[in-house]
Amino acid sequence: MSAPTSISDTSFQAPSSDSIAKHNAVVLAAAMALGGSSPAIVVSLGGLVGQALASNKELATLPVSLLNLGLALGTIPAAMLMRKAGRRTGYVVGAGIGLLGGCLAAFGIASYSFVLFCLGTLIIGSYGSFNQSYRFAATDAASEAFKPRAISWVMTGGLIAGVVGPQTVIWTRDAVQAAPFAGAFLGQAALAFLSMIVVWFLRPAPVSVASTTAGGGRPLLEIVRQPRFIVAAVTGLVSYSLMTFMMTSAPLAMIGCGHSVGAAALGIQWHILAMFGPSFFTGRLISRYGKGPVTAVGLVLIAISAVIGLSGITIAHFWITLILLGLGWNFGFIGATSLVTDCYRPEERAKVQAANDFLIFGSVALASFSSGKLLSAGGWESVNWMVFPPVVVALALLAWQQKAKVIVPAKV
């Protein structure tokens, strides 16, 4: 019996053009615009709803942490489903999960149940595990030259999500009079339903001859032990974890400093716009300057955002911090994602992508959990100080890899 093919469910020879890749990148960008709004809604309101419903106020950010835990726990099952059923079917199922999660979160608010609300955000997080693989799905049919741009195209959908998510909060948070904020989660469910329609337009990505004849590829442990995979995973992990670490606590810190809920939501909106806005040109920057240097710039921007966060607590300080944090995440995470695509063969991509995302989002969940406790114990200043050590480690690994590329001669 032949070994299973990679994620896509076709067996024909890949064409030389990137027409299918470009079509799918546009579809996935539209899906990202809808599905990418879910984290913005949960991050904007999760801590505030948690404060209202939780008897222990230290658990206020638990709903946001569970969003990230659901994302981490869902990565491997999502990859397995898509490997068996295909990208399109998997994404439709994922959108259905997002619809369910939004409805359950709204019901939890309406029934004053912190447990049900947390369960809802956990399920919404598992929906995110499907959405996060959009960036990899865009490369399935792409040439090597188009891969960084395909990733960037998909990430531009998050630019629209950066407006849709916070505006959904602002316009629907009082839609259910008896249950403040429940309307925003019903809005999230509606957006998930729309994304279910959009992903149906995905085209099957061709599979190369190598991916259909080479079996399952190398053992996963052998792949993840490669120095280049370790560097790619660590830089992606640091970029995403630190972004979540600061973003989770920022709305609560703003409220604690006397700023309004609307100001906090707009701060998250500017942050998400900064996260995805550069995606119009990040792929071109990577093609011109290299994956490592662009990733390093992202890490440095994250560190600078913490410096701004330590310098004051006005609305301007918070917003500039969140904007720089978003820019740093964009360069760092897209750069790291591009580095990961260098670490596997076509037949290995499903398991390597799942392993990479599991490591990243498992760490993101831990960062989110610790963020709320650290904010409660030490305040916004302590959250910012914790940014610098991981950035130094990640930059050191990148520098080591770049030096190794220069020293080690190419194989003839």
From TrEMBL:
Superkingdom of source: Bacteria
Keyword Protein biosynthesis: no
Bilayer-crossing regions: 25-48, 60-82, 89-107, 113-130, 150-172, 178-202, 229-255, 261-281, 293-313, 319-340
Keyword rRNA-binding among UniProt keywords: no
GO molecular function: transmembrane transporter activity
Keywords: Membrane, Transmembrane, Transmembrane helix
Family annotation (InterPro entries): MFS (IPR011701), MFS_dom (IPR020846), MFS_trans_sf (IPR036259)
Domain Major facilitator superfamily (MFS) profile: 228-412
One Pfam family matching this protein: MFS_1
Protein name, UniProt field: Putative MFS family arabinose efflux permease
Organism: Microvirga lupini
